[in-house]
């Protein structure tokens, strides 16, 4: 990247203060890259946290066969008893909520009605095509 930046500076498409390669290298070396990536890509947060961020701040974690699922158990000793109690309380609350809240992908009555209507329209259109009213390709 630095070579491309050098060429862009020579061609006057870039000025020295616009270089990114140094900041990118520093971010990679410090581990800040992983924090920013995890914050922007929540689908990958757990894996990034346990493989990169946690170890940066709390030291190496040993896990077998690349299985990070139980690494958090090895970090429990870092919490004070009050923090553990709060965490248990929070987990219990979330488990109760899980049973009372509708999942986001469960369709509500309006969505179910809309799906039924779209199916009816599609059936009618297919019926009209079968009567010779459709396009011939």
List the helices and strands and how they pair.
Layout lengths: L1 H9 L10 H10 L1 H9 L4 H14 L12 H5 L5 H20 L8 H25 L4
Task: List the main descriptive attributes of the protein structure presented here.
about 140 residues, single chain, flat, 7 helices, mainly alpha
Largest sheet: none
- What series of H and E elements makes up the topology? HHHHHHH
Given helix and strand content, the structural type is: mainly alpha
What fraction of residues sit in β-strands? Answer: under 5%
Low-confidence spans: none
What separation lies between the terminal Cα atoms? 51 Å
Mean pLDDT: 83
* Envelope shape: flat
Q: Which value, in Å, is the CA radius of gyration?
A: 27 Å
* Number of strand segments: 0
Describe the protein's architecture and organization.
The chain is mainly alpha-helical. The chain has a domain at about 80-135. It has seven helices and no strands. The chain has helices at about 1-10, 20-30, 30-40, 45-60, 70-75, 80-100, 110-135.
Short summary:
The chain has helices at 2-10, 21-30, 32-40, 45-58, 71-75, 81-100, 109-133. The protein has 137 residues and is an all-alpha fold.
